[in-house]
Structures are given as C-alpha cells and as structure tokens.
Amino acid sequence: MASEIVGSSVKRIDGREKVTGSALYSGDLVMPGMLHMKILFAGRPHARVLSIDTSRAEDVAGVVAIFTAKDVPLNEYGLQWNDQPVLCGPGSTKEGGDIVRFVGDQVALVVAETEKIAEHARSLIRVEYQDLPVVTDPEEAMKDGATLLHPHIANTNICVWDKIRKGNVDEGFNQCDVIVEDTYHVPVQEHVYLQPEAGLAYMDDGIVTVKAAGQWTHTDQKQIAHSLDLPLEKVRVIYPVIGGAFGGREDMSVQIVLALAATKLNRPVKIVWTRPESMFGHGKRHQMVIKAKWGANKDGKVLAAKTTIIADGGAYMYTSNKVLGNATITQSGPYYIPHFYSDVIGVYTNNVPGAAFRGFGAPQAAFMAEMQMSKLAEKLGLDEVDFRLRNTLKPGQTLNVQSPPVGPISIDRVIEEAVNRADWQRVDGVYSRKPSATHAHNNPVKTGYGMACGFKNVGFSFGYKDNCWAKVEISGNGNPEKARVWIASAEVGQGNHTILAQMVAEISGVPFKNVEMIVMDTQGMGNAGSASASRLTFMSGNAIKGAAELARQAWDKEDRPATAEYTYFAPPTTPFDKETGKCEPNFAYAYVAQACKVEVDTETGEVTVLEMISANDVGKAINPNLVEGQIEGGAVQAQGYVMMENFITKDGYVLTDKLSTYLIPTVRDIPKKLTSVVIEVPDDRGPFGARGLGELPYLPYAPAVISAVHDATGVWINQFPLTPEVVLKHLGKI
C-alpha cells in the first residue's frame, strides 16, 4: 500500500501545464475548417421581438449562416426548469419565446469564416422591438398589478417562497429582555473568472460534441439534447481546462447555440465572449434585502427570531429556488434558537438573473445572522465571542428546520481556534478582548477587531438523491504499477482531480505519479454530479474510494488487470414542509469562524483589513496545501465582495460591464496578513473523514469585517461593499 499519500501536500497533477501555459482552455481550442460565432444580445431589459431583418448581414462576404428562434427545435432550457428561450424572437416553439427579459437574452447567431466578419455582420442585423414595462425592484415586482415577466407560467412574479415556522415566535419575544430589529442590504456580485465564456462544437460520427467549461457535464448534455430535440447519446460534452467557475458556470451560456450551429452546418464552430458580454450575459450572486428581528434574555440566550428575506431572482429561475433554500437554513446561523419565523421570497425582475455563486445564499444569510448576534451581544454588554458560545448548536439541538445537524458539530472548536489567535483572551471560561485591543486615540485612523462564524451544507439537499459514479483500473506485472481513473467530476481550480489521484494511490498501492486521470467527459462515464455545494471531495471521494477498494480486492484475488465501477449514494434528505419548513435537508455540514483586525481612516473612509484569521473544519485535509489554497482564495474573493466589488445597474441596464468599472482585488488589496487554520474533526461518512470546504471562507467575512469597523468607529453599517463613500456616509461625513 502507498505510504500516507492521503494527507500529504503532493503537487497538483495539472500544475505544470497551467503554469507553463501549455494547458488548453476553451478559448484556446482550434480545429481545421473552424467557423466563428458572434451572438446578438437583446441589449434591452424587457421587450417583444416583432421582427428580425438579417438580409444585410447575410450579404456580407464570409457569412456562412444566421440563426434565430425559428431555427431552434425546442426553444427552451434551464437548469431547474425550462423557462428561458435559447433565442428570443418570432417563430419560437416556446410560448413567450418572442420576449426578451434581460439585457443578456440572446436574439440571433452569426456564423462566419472569421470572428471579425461575424462581428461586422452582427452589427447589420436590424431588430424591431416593442418595449415592455421594466420591473427592477423585487419589492415592487411582488405587488398586485405589477407587470408579469412570465404570465404564461404564473400570475405572480414570486418564484420562490420558503417558510420557517418553529415554535411560537410571539411567545419567544415576550420572554426576551433585549430585541434588535434592523434591515440589511447585500449586493450583487460578478464571478469574474479569468476566462470568459468560450467553447467549440463539432460533429463526430453523427454525435455533436461540445467543448466548453462547465460544472456538471451530464446536466449540460441533458439541456443541449433537450433544446436540439436529440437523444442523449447524440450529444457529448467534454470540459477542457477550466479557468474558474465559482457557480457561474452551472448555467448554460454558449453550449446550446454552439451545438445548434455545429449540427446545422456540420462544421466546427467556436465562440469567445468579450468581457462585457460575460458581465451582462450570465447570472450573478443574488441581491437581497433582509429584515430581521431577534431577541435574547439577560442570561445571553437567543430565544426568538423573525426574518423576511426578499431576493432578486432576475429574469429566469436559474438556481434561485436552491440558493434560497440554502439561505433559509443558514439564516439562523450555527445557533440554537427555539422560536423562529421566516419568509424567504424570490422574485422575478428584469435584472440579470440571480445564479449560483460560491456560498450559494449562505453569505447573504450569514451576514444578517452574525450582525444580529453582534448587536445583541452589544446590547447585553457581553463579548461577542462569549455570547456566541452561549448559543452555538450542541448535540441534539435543532436547526430552524426542526431537525438537528448531522455529523460532528465543531462550531465551538472553530470559534476558539480563530479567536485564540486574535485579540481575545479567556479568563475563568469567559472570553473578552485583550487589553491591547483598545483603540482610543486621537488619530483619525482607528483600529478595530471583529469576528463572525457560520456553517454550510455539504452536498445536494432537500430530497435529491445525491450520487457520484467512478471507475478504477489497476494494472501491473506482479505488483500494482498503474491505475487509470474515469470520473466526470469538474476540475474548476480546486484540485479535485489531484486529491482523487491521492486516494486511489493510497488504496491501490500504485505510486501517485502512475495514477492516470480520465475526466470531464460524458462519453463512457456515469454521472458525477456538479462541482458545487462543496460536495466533490465528499461525493467523488467516496465514489473513487469505493471503486478503488473493489478494484484492489479483485487484484488481491488475482483478477488482473482489476477493474471496478462504483456509484456512491449519499445519505437521504427530505424536502421542506411547505408551511413549516420542517425537514432533514442535508447529509453533512461544515463549520467556519473568522477573526480580523482592520483600520478605518475616518477622514477618507478607507477601510484596510490588516489581518484575517480563518479557521475551517475540513474533516480531513487530503492535501493540506490545496486546503490552504481554497481558504486563501475564498477569503480574497470574499474581500472583493465586501470591500470593493460594486455591480451597478439602472433600469435593467448594466453600467459596470468591464474591469475598469467593476473593480476586483489585486495583490495590493488583499488582507495584509491572512492566516489559514485547518481543523480536522473527521466525519465518519466522508472519504478518510473529509468533508467539503470550498465555500466556508466566504460565509463570515462580511460580518467579521463590519464588526471590526464598528469596533473602530462605534458605527454599524448594514450594507456593503464598504466603499469610502458608504463608510463616510455612515460616519456622517458626507
């Protein structure tokens, strides 16, 4: 057997190709005879397409074809349900398919011999629109009489409504000595993966093959096949090297239209979106308004909470129902609250759709929960760490869905590991800030300290039977010398394929360098599920572990080469009760806490994060360096979300559609010191005890920083990003 390869920081199997530039991303792909595509986007938030005149574009030398809605066999698609047209316009097979509902809806495709010709021809297409009323405020869109975005589907713009009814919230508030009531605004966020949407499609022996970055090969295949009215076996999806995803590649962008053109023309077709096209053309993190009323007694116990979350779902469903389901669970934080009443509402608007983004609704919900906890602690005169530890979940206590969290509950451990490295001390079992953490001085630059924590599900929820398929072959001359692994799981930068190779080496006895990974392909592979929900370490790890163990057993019985397939099925979960929210929604949870130190320049409004300590329970670090990379990457991405990323729209139009107007952190903007604390409390159902961690560092970042800003200035800020303008406004300086 291999010697403790699991738990070692071996080098990434894809590292050399990525750092040398030899790795081929979607935009790098070429084929002989390849054509180029450009998409005509609607460019307006709500309108009926009356006519499309392509005659002038068709006359351009080098234009091969132009496609519109009438050319799509089944003009609909969607990850949850088929509510979005592939192309909007006359002749659509879908009712309501002639209406554009946000600026990124696609209207026509131009395919030409060169990208430049396709771009020029696109500019010659003339579209006649009938503008329709634009609805961009979710609270207005909820009202009776509001313009409906999908009248053929429902007589309301409300697309999600989850309810929590635990205990008796009125009775709970009657027992409270302090109550905090406030409203929070959490913003849109753009994914900004380095490579925008791109891909190549071609025909191969009657099968249309699509090579484009995604997060779940088999659902991409299913959606393409549906829209083109093809059998699944006539569609193949292969992922090239992927330049980041963060949830944004869960939904379709270029895949269906590429497949449409390739099948129609029987020639390879390629497209690469520009940065502006990427920024208005795909979904974003959900913007939410959260109204909260929480109460506690003088003993420091939270007794009751009432919340209303209203989320901007944008033009189509995407994953809003799942995102809001996750926000519903995590909005109570990792705390036991006996009385909880909540309505979580998603609303269609003419904004860019709300979509999956790292954390998947939990960062927004955690912001509210942790802010409420810090404010309650302040009202009670308690340290925020001590107050949290009085209320954290203990074995047998229930979440707001009236069931206890499954697996180890390590929230106390992660809190203590974070604050013990920060500016807190523990005396007689009670935490308080160290005397050195005072900040009273006349300098306009104030120092503050803050902390927050959170929890997140691992894997798919609410009754979905999460599963993952893998195959392993062991070969050699006398001893196990080589292993081949087949798995469709997506490598989106997180290191999944490396840790799977480590697991196979550990179990099979094959040297790590001799493990060959055959990956990210629908052909010849079963469904691996999505690279989302922090699930791949847990799910693909268990699938690989099962297949490798069976193959090793066969090898030991001298069945050589030894090959085994295995499908891992996660423990069962149950959906929300529609009226109470009662359920057993998830099969695993992970916990995180962060403590930070900030400086606030009260004259300029600039906030600087001097130090961030992030303590994360990962169950087992299969590859410690990759774990630290996930923590650091997640924290830096959260830094952008909290401090500077400001996605601005007006009347449905995107005003920040380039990186000169939508700012993301550079090396000069990240925390001055970032400490990753890796905690290992094994989950006996995870592979080698591991669970997922990719989303954890996001969850408490905003409330930790804003708690520190409050400590520095005495002012609470209920929104972000913390631009100087926002900070100065709250300080009363402007």
Can you walk me through this structure?
- This protein has 734 residues and is of the alpha+beta class.
- The protein has three domains: 15-21 and 461-569, 2-Layer Sandwich (Aldehyde Oxidoreductase, domain 4), CATH 3.30.365.10; 31-132, Aldehyde Oxidoreductase, domain 3; 288-395 and 410-460 and 578-730, Aldehyde oxidase/xanthine dehydrogenase, molybdopterin binding domain (Aldehyde Oxidoreductase, domain 4, 2-Layer Sandwich).
- The chain is built from 17 helices and 27 strands.
- The chain has a seven-stranded mixed beta sheet, with helices on both faces. A five-stranded mixed beta sheet has the order 7-15-14-13-8. The protein has a four-stranded mixed beta sheet with strand order 18-23-24-27, with helices on both faces.
- Helix 6 packs across helix 7 (255-265) and helix 9 (320-330) runs parallel beside helix 10 (362-380).
- The longest helix is centred in the C-terminal third of the chain and has 21 residues, at 536-556.
- The protein is globular and about 80 Å long.
- 58% of the residues are buried.
